[in-house]
Structures are given as structure tokens and as C-alpha cells.
Design a protein that fits this description.
The complex is a heterodimer of chains A (199) and B (471). Helices cover 81% and strands 0% of the residues of chain A. Chain A is built from seven helices and no strands. In chain A, helix 1 packs parallel to helix 5 and helix 6 runs antiparallel to helix 7. In chain A, 44% of the residues are buried. Chain B is mainly alpha-helical and 471 residues long. Chain B has a three-stranded antiparallel β-sheet. In chain B, strands 1-2 form a two-stranded antiparallel sheet. Chain B starts with a helix and ends in a 6-residue tail after the last helix. The chains are: A mainly alpha (199), B mainly alpha (471). At the A-B interface, helix 5, helix 6 and helix 7 of A face helix 5 and helix 6 of B.
Chain lengths: 199, 471
């Protein structure tokens, strides 16, 4: 049962990462980011206890909330969800993202044997794919919001892999602190950029 | 008494206090300067055994504190390092030009300095990576304090420095496995690759340096030069600590060649790219890349004596960086609305002779010209390179020559008469404070070149910390 749940959670996590690689809507992306943290929590359960996995949800929701409040404050959230036909750029990003996920699937078994024998290969695959998608996101976007979202994803992906290697609570706490600081930084600069633009 | 509380704990608290007191900028700078001076003097004068006798009383300093099973240690061999860090912090705050209006500057610089010391002295070292990520975020705040927001350079800086964190943390985990099984060669190779890649990202070695020129044009150059100087110093010391602690890393086959090649390539491309620049702020970025290249060459030749050259270059590099950024900040402040392109700098040699002289001598200093600050260290390094790997001198000399061409382009632009040929209004001339600062830095620049042994005494203690690298 847990194995099935983990597979579904990995699928959902990667779908979310692909979604905000492709989409450029702040509101939707924040909702998807919060959803991803729930899926990540389930994936973390295969490596850590419930108590040690809980911070993943808390951090995910806190980061999403901080960014939501900031974006809402500067009027950057579109009020209505509307369907749009994907443009060429979005299709390109989607295809590149799928390619990276496939590449991660190929690399994951090798990484398990050579680097992380203690970690489940599904978790390695999920972590690697998240990091690769985040790197792509940071590489192709110069929008503050997407770069910070990419950074948060990058650290989440790494934390996922590292969770199977070491259970140091202090290190986990520091990762949580970094992610919260990154979201605060992102929120601060988003607000400042908007203030500067309106001046 | 505990050394960690004295040089890390108290400065951290003071930094937070300075951030809250930022309204009173003069008070903040005065407090910070006094604190830095006291910390530097204490670090230089305290015996390395950490036992101080005053009359009949004997004070024994403890060296470490334990925090959740992790150790923060500052022993006698770390004191020269502490002295150099607080010297840099005090120097940048004491000599801050009047145009530097960032009220957070004193607090943030002290916070950054104390955290750097924490990162360099935490055990196990993988926690250093997390602290350095924190430092990157603080650095961004410092850089963006003027404009309020960050540009593309700032974002790229954040991204590239953040990517290094997982690499170093993973290498830390691999290193713990190697300690248990030292003969496990594949692990050594993987850990070394991760460490090298992580440091290449942190130190902005050639091809990973793109954020430096971008960042140069975005925020305050004075803040940027402080951050880069402290970071270059910190990363060099951290890398040397790695080599010192893990003997298998320094004995890795071809490590020296890899470091040497990376250094030579960085020097060559720093010159090659500098020659195409039309903005003197971006030229500073390539000068810093040149310094990174020299650092790598010195580390690769550490065993043969390169470490002396590296340690000798720490203070001159800081001075030249400060001198360059002071001159550019001055020129920007005195010519509001004008940029720092060669075209816009036409005729400044005649209008602003002091700032121009400061700029010229700082660039020549970076190139290692005789009589100037960097000359003794550079002379030592080039001699070593010639003795050990003479062939590499060709691309290095070519890189330096190209940088000299870039300097000559700037020099001719500065000395040509300005197009408008109108003298600057009275309020827009170099004032007494500016002239004094420039002259002070010029004198320091010349003193470091003429009497290197005086300044060597401040940093020579660092050699003791890395004595194994000479074996």
C-alpha cells in the first residue's frame, strides 16, 4: 500500500515541478507548490518517520503562504483561472522537462549503485528529477518568482535524496531555515521590485 | 573565557545591535571600528597557547563550544585568520567613502565577517556549506541595499552559489565513509570531484564567473568589493583547510595539474575578456577573476612554496580592491547621471586627478607591477611557476599583457581631453576627505610594495595553520 502511495506521490511531485516549469501564472504555481509539499511529505515517509517528515509540509505551506501574501499585496495574483492554449515556449519547456525526467530515470539506478546504495531508487529518481527541473527553471527564467521557486525546488530535491543518507536533525533544521529564508528573500525582492516599478 | 564567544558570539550580537541602531550611522561606524580594532589587536597580541598572564592573574582561554553535537573551535592557530577578517571589516567601515549611504553596511559587514569565521571553524565542515548559503543571502541584502532590488547578476550569483551547497554537503557525507575505509578509491574520486566542483562554483573559476561582471554594474561597488574580498579570502582558506585535513585529497593524482590548469586558464581568459570591456566596473570583475586564477596557481604550488605567495597576497589584494572601488564610487558620485564606460570617463584624468591616480595605481597593482602592493607576492608566484611548470608562463604572461592593453585603453580614454571641455562645478570636485582617503590608500599601496615584511608579520601566522601542505 505504502509503495503504491509513494509512486503516486512521486508522480504528483514531478507533475507539479513540470507544471510550474511550464506555466507562468503566479497564483496557479503557488497552489501547485503547496500541493507538491503534500506529495513530497508522502515521498519523505519512505525515508523518514512521520515526525521528521512533517516539516516538509510545514515549510512548503509557509513558503507558499509568504509568497502568496507578498504577491497578493502587490496585486500580482490574477483573480480568475482561465484556460489558455499552450504557446510554443510552454510546449518547449514541457518537452525539455519530460526529457530531463526521462534522463533522471536512466541515471537513478546507476546513482543508487554507485553513490547512494542506502536510498530507495524511486526516491533518488524523484530527487534528481526535481533538481534537474529546478536547474532548468533557474536557467531559462529571469523572473524573481520563478528563480526563487526553482531554488526552493532544488533544495527540496536534494533534501529528499539526503534524507536517506543521514538523519541529522540539525542539518534538517538548517535546510528548513534555508528554505524559509529563501522564500522570505523572494517575497522581499518581489515587493521591492514592484515598489521600484511603481515609483 | 572562550575564544568562540569573543570572536564569533559577541560580534554576532554586536552586528544585530548595529542593525537595530542603523539610524545613527556615525555611531554605528564608530562602534564597529572600535570593536574591530579591539578584536584585531587581541587576536594579534594573544599568545598562541591562549594563556594570558596579567600580574598574578592567569587567564586560560577555552577554544571550543559544542552545539547539538557539532563543534565550533577557534584555537591559537586560528588567531591570525581572525585578525585578517576583522582587519578587512574594520578597514572597509573606517574608510567607507561619504557616498556610501547604506545604513545597514556596518551591521551586515560585521555579521558576514563573524559568520565567515563560524563557517571556517565549524566541525564537521559540511555545516560550513549551509552557513555559506546564509552568507550569500546576507551578501545579496548588502548589495541590494542601495537599489532595493536585485538584478540578473544578483540572481545568477544566488543560483550558482546555491548549487555548490549540495555538492559540498554530499562530499561531507562521502568523506565520513572514506574516514571509515581509507582505501576505498572510487569514493575518494567521487568525493574529490564533488569538492572541486563545489569550490569551482564558489570561487567563480573561469566559465562559472559570469555573475561577477554582471554584479559589478548592479549595486554599490564598495559593498561588492568587500563581499568579494572576504569571500575570496574565505574560500581560499576553506580550500586550504580541506587540503590540510584530508591528506588523500592533496595526494590525489593530477590534482595539482588540474588546479594549475584551472588557474592558468582563469588568468588567461581574465586578460582576454578584459581587453574587450568598455566599462571600468566590469574591468574590476575581470581583475578579480585574475586574482582567482592566481589563487589557484598558488594553491597548486603550495608544497613548493606557493602558499607563501598566497598568504602574502591577501592584504594587498584587499587594499587594491578597496582602492579600485573607492575610485569608481567617487567618480560615479562626482558625475551624477554619468556611467563608468571608457567613453564617459574621457578627460577625468584632468578633472579628478586624485581619484584617477587611485584607479590607475590599483589596476597596475592588480597586475603586479614593481613597487606596488601585489608585486612581492606576484614575483614569488611567477618565479615558482617558472621553476615548476615553465610552459604555463606563456598563457599567464599573455593574459597579463592583454589586461595591460585593457588598462592602456582606459588610460588613454582618461587622459584625452573631455568632449565638452567644461570644468566641473565647485561642488562636484574632489573634496578634502576624498583626497585624504586616496592618498592614504596610495601610501599603503606603495608601502606594501616597498616594505612587504611589515605587512607579512600580520599574516605569516596563517602559514602555521597549513604547515602540513609544505611537507
Amino acid at each position: 500500500m505504502m509503495a503504491y502511495l509513494t509512486r503516486i506521490a512521486v508522480g504528483l511531485t514531478l507533475f507539479c515541478a513540470l507544471f510550474y516549469l511550464m506555466q507562468r501564472d503566479y497564483w496557479l504555481n503557488l497552489a501547485v507548490y503547496a500541493l507538491q509539499s503534500i506529495a513530497l511529505f508522502v515521498v519523505f515517509l519512505s525515508e523518514r518517520s512521520v515526525l521528521l517528515s512533517l516539516p516538509v509540509i510545514l515549510v512548503g505551506f509557509s513558503c507558499a503562504l509568504v509568497l502568496f501574501i507578498s504577491l497578493n499585496g502587490i496585486g500580482k495574483l490574477s483573480p480568475l483561472l482561465r484556460f489558455k492554449v499552450p504557446n510554443a515556449g510552454e510546449i518547449f519547456r514541457l518537452l525539455t522537462g519530460i526529457f530531463l525526467i526521462l534522463a533522471s530515470a536512466v541515471i537513478a539506478p546507476w546513482a543508487k549503485v554507485q553513490l547512494f546504495p542506502r536510498v530507495d531508487s524511486l526516491v533518488i529518481f524523484c530527487g534528481l528529477a526535481m533538481m534537474a527541473l529546478a536547474l532548468l527553471q533557474m536557467g531559462i527564467s529571469s523572473d524573481l518568482f520563478f528563480v526563487f521557486l526553482g531554488l526552493l525546488n532544488f533544495f527540496s530535491g536534494f533534501e529528499l535524496i539526503y534524507a536517506g543518507l543521514e538523519e541529522a536533525i540539525l542539518l534538517q533544521a538548517l535546510f528548513v531555515a534555508i528554505q524559509l529564508l529563501l522564500s522570505l528573500c523572494g517575497a522581499y525582492y518581489l515587493i521591492k521590485r514592484e515598489e521600484k516599478r511603481t515609483l | 573565557m572562550n575564544t568562540v564567544y569573543i570572536w564569533i558570539g559577541i560580534p554576532l550580537l554586536l552586528a544585530l545591535a548595529l542593525i537595530f541602531l542603523r539610524r545613527w550611522s556615525h555611531l554605528c561606524r564608530a562602534l564597529l571600528s572600535i570593536a574591530c580594532l579591539a578584536l584585531v589587536l587581541l587576536a594579534l597580541l594573544l599568545p598562541r597557547e591562549l594563556v594570558l598572564s596579567i600580574g598574578l592573574r592567569v587567564f586560560v582561554f577555552e577554544t571550543d563550544i559544542t552545539f547539538f553535537g557539532r563543534v565550533l573551535r577557534l584555537d591559537g592557530t586560528d588567531l591570525p585568520l581572525v585578525a585578517v577578517f576583522y582587519l578587512l571589516c574594520g578597514f572597509w567601515n573606517l574608510l567607507a567613502p561619504r557616498w556610501e549611504e547604506n545604513s545597514l553596511f556596518p551591521g551586515l559587514t560585521l555579521l558576514i565577517t563573524a559568520l565567515w569565521l563560524g563557517a571556517l571553524n565549524v566541525e564537521p565542515f559540511l555545516y560550513a556549506a549551509i552557513v555559506i548559503e546564509l552568507l550569500v543571502l546576507l551578501g545579496l541584502f548588502l548589495l541590494s541595499a542601495h537599489q532595493g532590488t536585485i538584478g540578473k547578476g544578483g540572481l545568477r550569483y544566488l543560483v550558482l552559489q546555491s548549487i555548490a551547497v549540495p555538492l559540498i554537503v554530499l562530499s561531507g557525507w562521502l568523506l565520513s565513509s572514506i574516514e571509515l575505509a581509507p582505501s576505498a578509491n572510487p569514493l575518494i574520486l567521487r568525493a574529490s570531484l564533488l569538492v572541486l566542483l563545489g569550490f569551482a562554483l564558489w570561487m567563480a573559476v573561469f566559465s562559472l564567473h559570469s555573475w561577477i561582471p554582471m554584479l559589478c554594474g548592479e549595486g554599490s561597488l564598495w559593498s561588492f568589493s568587500f563581499l568579494q574580498t572576504v569571500a575570496q579570502f574565505g574560500f581560499a582558506v576553506l580550500f586550504l583547510s580541506f587540503l590540510q585535513e584530508y591528506y588523500w585529497l592533496r595526494n590525489l593524482p593530477h590534482l595539482k595539474e588540474i588546479l594549475l590548469l584551472a588557474g592558468v586558464v582563469s588568468v588567461f581568459f581574465a586578460g582576454s575578456l578584459a581587453v574587450f570591456q568598455n566599462d571600468v566596473a566590469r574591468l574590476l570583475a575581470y581583475a578579480l577573476l585574475l586574482e582567482t586564477g592566481c589563487t589557484l596557481i598558488a594553491i597548486s604550488l603550495a608544497q613548493e612554496g606557493g602558499i607563501y605567495s598566497l598568504v602574502m597576497s591577501f592584504l594587498p589584494r584587499a587594499l587594491l580592491s578597496a582602492q579600485w572601488s573607492l575610485s569608481l564610487e567617487g567618480l560615479s558620485a562626482l558625475r551624477p547621471g554619468k556611467g563608468l564606460t571608457f567613453q564617459e570617463l574621457r578627460g577625468i584624468g584632468r578633472r579628478y586627478p586624485f581619484l584617477s591616480l587611485g584607479l590607475i595605481l590599483s589596476i597596475l597593482g592588480f597586475l603586479g607591477l614593481p613597487l606596488l602592493a601585489n608585486y612581492p607576492a606576484r614575483r614569488n608566484l611567477w618565479n615558482l611557476l617558472q621553476m615548476q611548470q615553465g610552459g604555463y608562463l606563456v598563457p599567464v604572461c599573455l593574459g597579463l599583457a592583454l589586461f595591460l592593453v585593457a588598462f592602456l585603453r582606459l588610460f588613454f580614454a582618461m587622459m584625452r581631453p573631455a568632449e565638452d571641455a567644461v570644468y566641473a562645478p565647485e561642488g562636484m570636485k574632489e573634496d578634502f576627505r576624498t583626497k585624504t582617503l586616496v592618498i592614504l590608500m596610495l601610501l599603503l599601496n606603495l608601502s606594501m610594495g616597498l616594505f612587504p615584511q611589515v605587512f607579512w608579520r600580520i599574516v605569516q601566522g596563517l602559514i602555521v595553520k597549513f604547515s602540513d601542505l609544505l611537507l
